[in-house]
TrEMBL record:
<dbReference type="InterPro" id="IPR001944">
    <property type="entry name" value="Glycoside_Hdrlase_35"/>
</dbReference>
<keyword id="KW-0732">Signal</keyword>
<protein>
    <recommendedName>
        <fullName>beta-galactosidase</fullName>
        <ecNumber>3.2.1.23</ecNumber>
    </recommendedName>
</protein>
<dbReference type="InterPro" id="IPR041392">
    <property type="entry name" value="GHD"/>
</dbReference>
<dbReference type="InterPro" id="IPR043159">
    <property type="entry name" value="Lectin_gal-bd_sf"/>
</dbReference>
<keyword id="KW-0378">Hydrolase</keyword>
<keyword id="KW-0964">Secreted</keyword>
<feature type="domain" description="SUEL-type lectin">
    <location>
        <begin position="580"/>
        <end position="666"/>
    </location>
</feature>
<dbReference type="GO" id="GO:0030246">
    <property type="term" value="F:carbohydrate binding"/>
</dbReference>
<dbReference type="Pfam" id="PF02140">
    <property type="entry name" value="SUEL_Lectin"/>
</dbReference>
<comment type="similarity">
    <text>Belongs to the glycosyl hydrolase 35 family.</text>
</comment>
<dbReference type="InterPro" id="IPR000922">
    <property type="entry name" value="Lectin_gal-bd_dom"/>
</dbReference>
<keyword id="KW-0326">Glycosidase</keyword>
<dbReference type="GO" id="GO:0005975">
    <property type="term" value="P:carbohydrate metabolic process"/>
</dbReference>
<dbReference type="GO" id="GO:0048046">
    <property type="term" value="C:apoplast"/>
</dbReference>
<keyword id="KW-0052">Apoplast</keyword>
<dbReference type="InterPro" id="IPR048913">
    <property type="entry name" value="BetaGal_gal-bd"/>
</dbReference>
Length: 676
C-alpha cells in the first residue's frame, strides 16, 4: 500500500529487516550501534531509543541509568549512525482509558528526561544535554565522512576516527577540526588506559570518550557532572477534615476552604438500562463493548435441584465455575454477592461457588485494563473469554454455559449517565458518606476541592483507594489501582553492562502508582468536582491534592571532570590557550519560578556520601558553605568553578578535590543567576 501511494519521499519502517528498497528499515531498542540497514544505500536510523520503560500495575518501576543511555547513543554515532530519536524524551499521562498494554499504568512517565509533569529529570536531562553538545562539536567531521576508520586499542577497547581532508573541510565549513574520534571501552568491569595518536587516555568501564579534535576529551559517558534533582509531592490541600464548611484551614500560611463531606452512590450489580440484549452463547468482550467501556456484564440464571444439593453435601464438594482462558479482570457475582475475582492475561479460571436450591443469578463482569497495543496481529488478541465456559460438579455432570441465554449490559450506569460531569452530577441521587463508613465495592464518590496555590504541577494522591477510575471537572484523569509490586527485585543499580527492563528496578513492595496528574488547565480556583468510581473498596477521606516540584538539588563535580560543554566552540579546538584556561564547573538550577532558598551542605575537598547523605571528608575547605551560599542563595541558578583559587587556595595538596553541594529550592516570583 505504501509503495502504491507513490509518496515521492522515502518511507521509514521500524524493525522490518526485509523492507523494500525504497523503504528505509530502522532500529528500535536499547542499543542500535550494531544495527545496519538492509542496503548500503540507506542511512543508519535509530527511530526509538528506549531511554526508559513503561510500568505495569503491580509491577516494579523501571529505571535506566543515564550513563548507559549516553554510552548507547555515543556508540551509535561512533559506529556510523545518521539519525537518533529518543522514546520517550518527554513523559506523559494516559488520560482516560488510553493506556495500553494490557495492564500499563496511567502514568507514562517512562523515566524520561522530562517527566509527565513537565519537570526535568536530573541528572538524565543534563547529562544527555552535554552528550549532544559534544556530538555537535564533531558535526563537521561526522557529516563529511561516509564511514569512520576503525582502530583497535585493546582487547575490549576501540576507536572510530572521522578524519576529513583539510581542503575538503575548509571548503565546506571554513573553520574547526578536521578530525573527530570516539574512544570506547566496552569492558563492563575494568577501567582501561589506551594510547591513541600518541596520547594516553583513561576510559572508565562501559564508556565512550568523545574527542571532537582527535586530541581533547570533552565528554565521557560515565562521568556525570549534572545535578541530581529530588522531586517531592508535597501536602497542599486535604480533601477532608472534620471541620465545618465555613472554617478556614491554614496551610503553609495560605487559607483554603475544605469540604466537610464526601457523597456516595451505589452502582447496580444488574441490568440497568434498556440497551441490554439477551442471546444464547458467550460473546467476545470487544465485539460487544466496541471499547466504549472497560466493563461488560454477563447475566444468566442457574437452576439447582434438590438432588444437586444432596450430591454436594454427601460428597463434600462444591460446584465450580471453569473458564479456559480470560483477560484482564473477572468479577464473579452469585445472587448479588461478589464471591471471587481473577486477574491475568489469558489465564484459566477455576472458581468454587456456592449455589442455593432453585434459581441463582450468576453475573460475570469482565473488564479490560488497556488493550494490546503492539505486536503482529494485535487486533486478534481480543478480550473477555476464550474457550469453554462451564460449571462443573453437578450430579448429572458439567453444564456448558455457552448453551445458556445470557443478558449483556455494556458499561456502568453512572458512566453512561455521565454523573462525573458538573451538570449530570447534580441530577444523581447522592447520599452523604460518614467518615466511619466501611469500604464499599462498586461505589461512586464525589466531593469538591480548591486548586492548590501557585504554579507547581498538581497530583491527586489516591493511595487510600483500591481500583477504579477518576474524573476532575468532567475530565477523565485515568484508571487508578493500588496494586502492590513484589518486595524483591530492587537493589543497587550498576550502569555497567547491557540494560534490560528488570535491571535497576525501583519501588519494590509499594503500589505501582498512587499519584495521578491533574493538568492545571483542567482546574479552576475553587469548587473543582472530583468523582471516583471504586470497585474494590477504599477510604476517600484520606485522598488529598498535592503539588509536585523539585525541592532538593545536589551535585558533585571534581577537578577531573571536563569543562562544561557550554564553554566550547569549534574555534576552541584550534586555540590551545583557550582550552588550558577552561576548568570544570558545577551548574545548579531550580525549576522555573523557583530559587535556591538555602545551601544545606557544601564541601570542597574530599566529601563522602551521595545526595541527601553528604558528609565532610578528611579534606575540607572551611569556607565552602559560605562561598557557595553567597554565589547561589536567592538565585534561580548559579555556576561554581571547580578551582582552588575560588575557595581561597588548595585545602589538601596531592589530592583530587571535589565539590559536593546540596541545596533547597522554593517558589519565588523572580529569579536570577550567578557565577562564582
Amino acid at each position: 500500500m505504501a509503495l502504491e501511494l507513490d509518496a515521492g519521499v522515502p518511507w521509514v519502517m521500524c524493525q522490518q529487516a526485509d523492507a523494500p528498497d525504497i523503504i528505509i528499515n530502522a532500529c528500535n531498542g536499547f542499543y542500535c550501534d550494531g544495527f545496519w540497514p538492509n542496503s548500503a544505500n540507506k542511512p543508519k536510523l535509530w527511530t526509538e531509543d528506549w531511554n526508559g520503560w513503561f510500568a505495569s500495575w503491580g509491577g516494579r518501576t523501571p529505571k535506566r541509568p543515564v550513563e548507559d543511555i549516553a554510552f548507547a547513543v555515543a556508540r551509535f554515532f561512533q559506529r556510523g549512525g545518521s539519525f537518533h530519536n529518543y522514546y520517550m524524551y518527554f513523559g506523559g499521562t494516559n488520560f482516560g482509558r488510553s493506556s495500553g498494554g494490557p495492564f500499563y499504568i496511567t502514568s507514562y512517565d517512562y523515566d524520561a528526561p522530562i517527566d509527565e509533569y513537565g519537570l526535568l529529570s536530573q541528572p538524565k536531562w543534563g547529562h544527555l544535554k552535554e552528550l549532544h553538545a559534544a556530538i555537535k562539536l564533531c558535526e563537521p567531521a561526522l557529516v563529511a565522512v561516509d564511514s569512520p576508520q576503525y582502530i583497535k586499542l585493546g582487547p575490549m577497547q576501540e576507536a572510530h576516527v572521522y578524519r576529513v581532508k583539510e581542503s575538503l573541510y575548509s571548503t565546506q565549513s571554513g573553520n574547526g577540526s578536521s578530525c573527530s574520534a570516539f574512544l570506547a571501552n566496552i569492558d563492563e568491569h575494568k577501567t582501561a588506559s589506551v594510547t591513541f595518536l600518541g596520547q594516553v587516555y583513561k576510559l572508565p568501564p562501559w564508556s565512550v570518550s568523545i574527542l571532537p579534535d582527535c586530541r581533547t576529551t570533552v565528554f565521557n559517558t560515565a562521568k556525570v557532572g549534572a545535578q541530581t534533582s529530588i522531586k517531592t509531592v508535597e501536602f497542599d490541600l486535604p480533601l477532608f477534615r472534620n471541620i465545618s464548611v465555613s472554617q478556614p484551614l491554614m496551610v503553609q500560611n495560605k487559607i483554603s476552604y475544605v469540604p466537610r463531606t464526601w457523597m456516595t452512590l451505589k452502582e447496580p450489580i444488574s441490568v440497568w438500562s434498556k440497551n441490554n440484549f439477551t442471546i444464547q452463547g458467550v460473546l467476545e468482550h470487544l465485539n460487544v463493548t466496541k471499547d466504549h467501556s472497560d466493563y461488560l456484564w454477563r447475566i444468566t440464571r442457574i437452576n439447582v435441584s434438590a438432588e444437586d444439593i444432596s450430591f454436594w453435601e454427601e460428597n463434600q464438594v462444591s460446584p465450580t465455575l471453569s473458564i479456559d482462558s480470560m483477560r484482564d479482570i473477572l468479577r464473579i457475582f452469585v445472587n448479588g454477592q461478589l464471591i471471587g475475582s481473577v486477574i491475568g492475561h489469558w489465564v484459566k479460571v477455576v472458581q468454587p461457588i456456592q449455589l442455593l436450591q432453585g434459581y441463582n443469578d450468576l453475573v460475570l463482569l469482565s473488564q479490560t485494563v488497556g488493550l494490546q497495543n503492539y505486536g503482529a496481529f494485535l487486533e486478534k488478541d481480543g478480550a473477555g473469554f476464550k474457550g469453554q465456559v462451564k460449571l462443573t460438579g453437578f450430579k448429572n455432570g458439567e453444564i456448558d454455559l455457552s448453551e445458556y441465554s445470557w443478558t449483556y449490559q455494556v458499561g456502568l450506569r453512572g458512566e453512561f449517565q455521565k454523573i462525573y460531569t458538573i451538570d449530570e452530577s447534580e441530577k444523581a441521587e447522592w447520599t452523604d458518606l460518614t467518615p466511619g463508613a466501611s469500604p464499599s465495592t462498586f461505589t461512586w464518590y464525589k466531593t469538591f476541592f480548591d486548586a492548590p496555590n501557585g504554579e507547581n504541577p498538581v497530583a491527586l494522591d489516591l493511595g487510600s483507594m483500591g481500583k477504579g477510575q477518576a474524573w476532575v471537572n468532567g475530565h477523565h484523569i485515568g484508571r487508578y489501582w493500588t496494586r502492590v509490586a513484589p518486595k524483591d527485585g530492587c537493589g543497587k543499580c550498576d550502569y555497567r553492562g547491557h540494560y534490560h527492563t528488570s535491571k535497576c528496578a525501583t519501588n519494590c513492595g509499594n503500589p505501582t502508582q498512587i499519584w495521578y496528574h491533574i493538568p492545571r488547565s483542567w482546574l479552576q480556583a475553587s469548587n473543582n468536582l472530583l468523582v471516583l468510581f471504586e470497585e474494590t473498596g477504599g477510604n476517600p477521606f484520606e485522598i488529598s491534592v498535592k503539588s509536585r516540584s523539585t525541592q532538593t538539588i545536589c551535585a558533585e563535580v571534581s577537578e577531573s571532570h571536563y569543562p562544561s560543554l557550554q564553554n566550547w566552540s569549534h574555534s576552541d579546538f584550534i586555540d590551545q590557550n583557550s582550552k588550558n584556561k577552561m576548568t570544570p564547573e558545577m551548574h545548579l538550577h531550580c525549576d522555573d519560578g523557583h530559587t535556591i532558598s538555602s545551601i544545606e551542605f557544601a564541601s570542597y575537598g574530599t566529601p563522602r556520601g551521595s545526595c541527601q547523605m553528604f558528609s565532610q571528608g578528611q579534606c575540607h575547605a572551611p569556607n565552602s558553605l559560605a562561598l557557595v551560599s553567597k554565589a547561589c542563595q536567592g538565585k534561580g541558578s548559579c555556576v561554581i568553578r571547580i578551582l582552588n583559587s575560588a575557595f581561597g587556595g588548595d585545602p589538601c595538596r596531592g589530592f583530587v578535590k571535589t565539590l559536593a553541594v546540596e541545596a533547597k529550592c522554593a517558589p519565588s516570583s523572580t529569579t536570577s543567576s550567578s557565577q562564582l
